Amino acid sequence: xTAQLPRTADELHALPRVGERAVVMTMGALHEGxxxxxxxxxxxxxxxxxxxxxxxxxxxQFGAGEDLDRYPRTLDADVVxxxxxxxxxxxxxxxxxVYPGGEPEVxxxxxxxxxxxxxxxxxxHFDGVLxxxxxxxxxxxxxxxxxxEKDAQQLALITRxxxxxxxxxxxxxxxxxxxxxxxxxxxxNRYLSEADRASALELxxxxxxxxxxxxxxxxxxxxxxxxxxxxxxxxxxPVVLDYLALVDPADFTDVPEDFRGEAVLAAxxxxxxxxxxxxxxxxxxxxx
Length: 288
Prior knowledge:
By secondary structure, this protein is an alpha/beta fold. The protein is 35% helix and 19% strand. The strands form 2 sheets. Strands 3-2-1-4-5 form a 5-stranded parallel sheet, sandwiched between helices. The chain has a 3-stranded antiparallel sheet with strand order 6-7-8, covered by helices on one side. α2 packs across α3 and α6 crosses α7. It is globular, with a radius of gyration of 19 Å.
């Protein structure tokens, strides 16, 4: 199967559509984590459905001093990865197609949840994410949209936006894909030197250590993870922690000590010039 490469919404809508359409939104530089999303989408819609991968580097979600200019752009390779994973089309619109009037004056606000954790360190980031997601949902018109659980706060906000604003689409989360050593797959991993990578592994090790302490309560989970990261701060290069938090996935507020239910242990850190995020999901008490 050869994946089509529409560049405009009109070209995308001209493609034959029989069953359900699933969309996987990316900024390109596709890796195995993206491929897992595409395979999940293909499995869900079946052979009669259509899987569309979007490739668009969204300028609205990059803040001052962030890596918009150096963000990898590898469309030819992305089409190959998407095709092998089961995509029918790779929608790669220009900025003019997505934002025909230039940067939009009217944007979607992420609200209080968008100001926590990632939002505190990247002001306005989630407003940019939700605005482009809303635009791409309109442009692609899917029945389902698949997002990775690695970007847990983003997934929570998109799910909330779709519910609050009555988008006619089902949001599907797909578990984080990790390399053999535990590092969560990310397009930014390519920036890590060998020494950087050795330090970066402490991020996932801290989260998995915290996850293993779930039976001892939220406080112990946090202390166990933080002990690993405190040691990692002394490595060379150091792991410079932005945040470590144990939160309710519904609104990303901190969970109390007597919390029962699903929680997310999330962290963000800088290793050298590269900023990485990661998280694991935990269940306190019996699952409902």
